[in-house]
Write a structure and sequence with these properties.
- This protein is α+β, with helices and mostly antiparallel strands.
- It is built from 12 helices and 64 strands.
- Helix content is about 20%, strand content about 40%.
- A 4-stranded antiparallel beta sheet has the order 1-28-27-26.
- α5 runs antiparallel to α7.
Length: about 950
């Protein structure tokens, strides 16, 4: 078997093969996407649709021209702000538009912005006062024709000419390169070489409006009228096209249509949406409000470059994904979550959460809804054909369905499903809410035989082989053996892992009549003889590059369908090889029913997939270009002061240079990929700013700020909903440097540097000379400073010597003072003694003495008195003390003016550190008097008891 390695890319033939036919599916409904006016920010009515070479879509809207690039909407109003009724895009990219009293064209300017040029200004207002509505625009033979009711305006070679209506134009159409007008008086007219030629026998349509003309076959034109239906013009005759489509148009009126896939006709209706019919008039598809459209009045239809259908509605815009192999049965078919489907006796049956519904398989699905099978209104887990009986595994039990109703209840327990027992062809086993039960085939049909005892667990995932019943529940499996009577389980074993390498068991399935066990995409078979699980490496190799799956189912064509991460894929079997197909199913991601992979393959063209919101129909043979590689566009490039729109211009814009002050840039991205827009993602890289591509994101805007000067290239790529990536789209731009980093600025800097070097060099030379001069001066200064310092040191030394001498002298003086004081004290003592002697002599009675003695005593007394009176030692001492302590006495007197002379003397004596006794003797007072004098002195000096008097006097 051949391994297809690419997991996200669909098979080669789907990507690149040319479709061998175009087909519109007649089973189910295509995906419909509605755009409301609050999304596109325009008026309600949309009259015409077009598409440019880049894939951008344009809509003629009541409020102007709308543009849609897949990511954003833009509106371009006309100068007179009237509605746009028609548009046409020519080969040059000009978008011609027409409205009321206005027509012209939009064209991208040099910066990609659409600018309007009015051609109505070329009309002579003196001759034509009212242009009226322009209803149709055609590009034929290098001419652009703007058609109003009264005339046609022909624009060619920058000139405008006028073609008057013979009577009154209704509408106009291009068929096979020929332009036709409907005139209300003359019928259908062909325009050739600026003249009109009547088509024979077309006046029969004068009393109705023609809204469309299309080629069916050679020389056979389909004419679509508003009210009278469809006609064929062939061999110069007009005849009704009596078909199913004609009946629809007569009933619902028509506003024209379009051709899709070259084989089908789209018919817009006024009352009931849109139909698609084949060239035989058979209706293939009908989409209206009930089936998903937001409005039933279709003003216009357009087939885009991927064969998908756009509808301009009377209120809004709709997109119908016709180019998809998928169609859906959802709410409009009255079905909900689907768990299983099967075809039996010409009916398609689906088991849902609301019951079993059915629809005739051999009739069209376009109008009918699914009908409920009577008696099944409950959760229905499965519906199977067993021995020609349709059995429903329902919450109410095992039910037999026939003729659109339940005809028999086999067992009343709730059931998940049924399997045939190998080697017991008449017996079946059913999984119910209480475990498992045995059913037997009889002549009257399938009957309940017995409930199997010994095990009461169950689920919808079980298989039966020759030896065992295998049940997967949660992440484990159970291996069980039935006894011969099929009444009980004789052996039960729970298995939590297949091998030590992989613990959880992912799925249990039967492939090619063999039961496989899957764990982490490795597939194993059980060997009874060896009692172990053996890996099937060939099958495991198929899933090597596929994400870990959680369910697997083999269909009737031997294709292997697998579920992973709420997504779906299939290995399609062709010529004994498998091709991995994933891309088409990405749109089903998130809609699969959890733990119930429901795949019903009737044939390659009819595959039904159960979804949470209905049933999907997949045609694997419908080869289309629906997964062609998408295109990415850098839609706009903005920076402060300007915006460049790139998505409008078919020509690539060259390198863009922006000033440094505008280095805040903004990019918008787009991709004309209109299918499943919510899954379209972008990735970008700004070189050399970004080292790698960004992560994929649905955000289509990116900003960069404070970019440095340099050359940049913006790369953008897109990934559509199928995982297909586009080629990168690039835009190169240059951010100019700021003026101070400009090339000329650097030249100036270089010149200034040279000048600076020259100036600095000269200054250095001058400085060197100055330094030498200052060095000499400095040396001289240092010499003088040293000399001055030496002299100062000598002077200080001399002063120190003088001070020492003075100190020594002061010491000597103090010593002499002390000696003088001592001597003075001796004198005082002497005088005191002499005064005592004198006192004693006075006490002697002189009269009692003889004259000689009396004379001697008198003489002695006089001598002593003379000695005492002539002794000036104390006065000299006082004078000496006052001279020595003159400065101290002066400071003390200045600080304390009220101090008395006696207190000054006491202060001096205390400063000389004389004792109290010595002071008493000098001052001729008692020691108590000295203490009193000291007290009075302290009080006058303001000293407290703790302060030392002598220390205070020494500090003055």
């Amino acid at each position: 078997m051949k391994l297809i390695k690419s997991y996200f890319i669909i098979t080669f033939f789907t990507l690149f093969a040319i479709p061998f036919f175009g087909q519109v599916k007649n089973i189910g409904l295509p995906d419909v996407r509605n755009y409301k006016r609050n999304e596109y920010k325009g008026g309600t009515q949309n009259w015409n649709i077009g598409q440019d070479k880049n894939g951008n879509l344009y809509f003629a809207n009541n409020n102007g021209l709308l543009q849609f690039d897949g990511a954003s909407w833009r509106k371009y109003p006309l100068p007179n702000e009237t509605s746009v009724r028609c548009l046409k895009i020519d080969a040059s990219g000009k978008i011609f538009v027409g409205g009321y009293n206005e027509f012209g064209y939009f064209q991208p300017n040099a910066k990609g912005r659409l600018k309007y040029t009015s051609l109505a200004q070329k009309v002579d207002k003196n001759k034509i006062k009212i242009i009226d509505f322009i209803w149709k625009i055609h590009a034929v033979n290098n001419e652009i024709i703007f058609q109003s009711f009264a005339r046609a305006y022909i624009y060619k070679n920058e000139k405008l000419s006028i073609l008057k209506a013979p009577g009154r134009f209704q509408f106009s159409f291009v068929v096979n390169g020929k332009l036709y007008f409907q005139d209300v008086e003359h019928g259908i007219l062909e325009y050739r070489n600026n003249r009109l030629y009547v088509l024979p026998n077309t006046k029969v349509l004068n009393n109705t409006e023609i809204w469309g003309m299309y080629t069916l076959e050679k020389n056979k034109i389909l004419i679509i009228t508003l009210e009278r239906g469809l006609f064929i013009y062939e061999n110069s005759t007009v005849k009704p096209w009596n078909t199913e489509a004609n009946d629809f148009v007569k009933k619902n009126n028509s506003l024209g249509g379009s051709i899709i896939k070259n084989n089908f006709i789209v018919l817009n209706s006024v009352l009931d949406g849109v139909i698609i019919c084949d060239f035989n008039g058979k209706i293939i598809q009908h989409v209206n409000r009930k089936k998903g459209l937001q409005n039933n009045t279709i003003l216009t239809s357009f087939v885009d470059n991927k064969n998908n259908l756009w509808l301009g509605l009377d209120n809004g815009i709709a997109y119908i994904n016709e180019n998809s192999p998928f169609t859906y049965f959802g709410f409009s078919y009255d079905i909900s979550t689907v768990y299983a489907s099967v075809i039996d006796q010409g009916n398609l049956y689906v088991a849902t959460n609301q019951g079993v519904f059915y629809h005739a398989w051999n009739t069209t699905f376009k109008e009918g809804v699914f009908k409920l099978v009577e008696g099944t209104t409950a959760q229905s887990w499965n519906v199977q054909v067993i021995e020609n009986e349709l059995i429903c595994a329902n919450n109410r039990g095992a039910l037999v369905i026939n003729g659109g109703k339940v005809t028999r209840t086999i067992d009343s327990k709730g059931y998940y499903g049924f399997k045939r027992i190998p080697n017991r062809p008449n017996f079946f086993i059913g999984s119910n809410y209480d475990g498992f039960a045995i059913f037997e085939k009889t002549a009257g049909g399938l009957v309940f035989k017995n409930q199997i005892n010994g095990f009461d667990k169950s689920s919808n995932s079980f298989e039966v082989d020759d030896s065992y019943l295998w049940l997967k529940r949660d992440a484990s499996i159970y291996r069980m053996t039935l006894n011969d009577e099929l009444t009980r389980f004789s052996y039960i074993k729970k298995i939590d892992q297949l091998t030590p390498a992989y613990k959880n068991i992912g799925s249990l399935q039967k492939i090619d009549h063999k039961i496989y066990f899957q764990s982490n995409n490795h597939f194993y078979l059980y060997s009874k003889e060896q009692n172990l699980f053996i890996e099937d490496k060939a099958l495991s190799l198929l899933f090597k590059n596929i994400p870990v799956i959680n369910a697997l189912s083999e269909d009737s064509q031997s294709n292997l369908w697998y579920a992973f991460d709420e997504s779906l894929g299939v290995l399609m079997k062709e010529n004994n090889t498998y091709k991995n197909v994933v891309a088409p199913f990405s749109n089903l991601t998130g809609n699969l029913v959890s733990n119930y992979l429901s795949i019903n393959t009737i044939d390659p063209q009819n595959i039904f997939i159960g979804l949470t919101d209905g049933l999907a129909h997949y045609n694997s043979k419908l080869l289309t270009h629906f997964v062609t590689k998408p295109k990415a566009f850098i839609r706009s490039f903005s920076f402060p002061g300007d915006t460049i729109v790139l998505g409008n211009n078919p020509n690539k814009i060259g390198n863009i240079r922006i000033p440094y002050s505008s280095n805040h840039v903004r990019f918008t991205f787009s991709s004309p990929t209109y299918e499943n827009l919510e899954n379209v993602q972008f990735s970008y890289q700004l070189e050399p700013f970004d080292d790698k591509w960004s992560n994929w994101s649905t955000i289509s805007i990116k900003e960069y700020t404070n970019l440095r000067e340099g050359e940049y290239t913006m790369n953008v790529k897109v990934r559509n909903s199928y995982g297909i990536q586009s080629e990168p789209s690039t835009l190169s731009f240059t951010v100019s440097p700021p003026w101070y980093r400009h090339f000329l600025a650097f030249m100036l800097y270089f010149l200034l540097l040279i000048i600076l070097i020259y100036i600095v060099s000269n200054r250095i030379k001058v400085k060197i000379r100055k330094n030498k001069y200052y060095e000499t001066i400095e040396q001289r200064k240092l010499y003088l400073e040293r000399d001055a310092k030496t002299r100062q040191e000598q002077y200080e030394l001399a002063k120190e010597i003088e001070k020492l001498k003075n100190d020594k002298l002061q010491i000597k003086i103090l010593a002499k003072d002390k000696e003088l004081v001592n001597n003075s004290l001796q004198v005082v003592k002497k005088n005191k003694i002499l005064n005592g002697i004198i006192h004693k002599l006075k006490e002697i009675d002189i009269e009692a003495l003889d004259e000689s003695t009396k004379f001697q005593v008198s003489k002695l007394n006089k001598s002593i008195v003379k000695e005492v009176n002539t002794d000036k030692s104390w006065k000299d001492l006082e004078k000496h003390i006052k001279n020595v302590h003159f400065e101290f006495l002066k400071r003390l007197k200045e600080k304390y003016p009220t101090i008395s002379p006696r207190e000054l003397d006491l202060s001096t004596y205390l400063l000389m550190n004389m004792s109290t006794k010595e002071i008493a003797e000098i001052m001729n007072i008692s020691t108590g008097g000295v203490e009193l004098a000291r007290y009075r002195l302290r009080k006058k000096l303001g000293l407290n008891k703790k302060e030392n008097l002598i220390g205070f006097l020494m500090s003055i």
